[in-house]
């Protein structure tokens, strides 16, 4: 059975992490958790540049949580 979830990817803590979409409206300075269990301040979700989005790699742990059985979709390491 498939599940449908909406995610936003944010470049925080050294990589682009997947967060549930509802966290986009979280108040500043609250702790939020990525799919990979990385915890950051919600302030970081709102203070990243487009350059950070381009230059930081995709979090492999988030990717593996979302696509555990599809190595063909894994980003280059």
Structure description:
The protein has 77 residues and is an alpha+beta fold. It has one domain. The protein is built from three helices and four strands; from the N terminus they run ββββααα. The strands form two sheets. Strands 1-2 form a two-stranded antiparallel sheet. A two-stranded antiparallel ribbon has the order 3-4. β3 and β4 form a beta hairpin. The termini are far apart. 18% of the residues are buried. The model has no long low-confidence stretch (mean pLDDT 86).
Task: Provide the helix percentage.
Answer: 10-25%
Number of continuous helical runs: 3
Measured by DSSP, the beta-strand proportion falls in 15-25%
Q: Uncertain segments of ≥5 residues (pLDDT<50)?
A: none
Structural class: alpha+beta
Which H/E pattern describes the elements?
EEEEHHH
Strand order of the largest sheet: 1-2
Work out the radius of gyration.
13 Å
Number of strands: 4
Give the averaged pLDDT, no decimals: 86
Main pleated sheet? 2 strands, antiparallel
Shape: globular
Report how far apart the termini are: 30 Å
Number of domains: 1
How are the elements arranged and paired?
Blueprint (H helix, E strand, L loop, with lengths): L6 E6 L2 E6 L10 E3 L5 E3 H5 L3 H6 L4 H7 L11
Antiparallel strand pairs: 1-2, 3-4
Q: What's this entry about, in short?
A:
The protein is α+β, with helices and mostly antiparallel strands and 77 residues long. The chain is 23% helix and 23% strand.
């Amino acid at each position: 059975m498939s599940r449908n979830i909406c995610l936003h990817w944010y470049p925080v803590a050294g990589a682009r992490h997947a967060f549930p979409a509802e966290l986009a409206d979280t108040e500043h300075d609250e702790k939020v958790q990525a799919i990979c269990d990385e915890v950051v301040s919600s302030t970081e979700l709102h203070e990243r540049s487009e350059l950070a989005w381009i230059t930081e790699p995709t979090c492999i742990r988030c990717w593996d949580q979302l696509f555990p059985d599809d190595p063909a979709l894994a980003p280059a390491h």
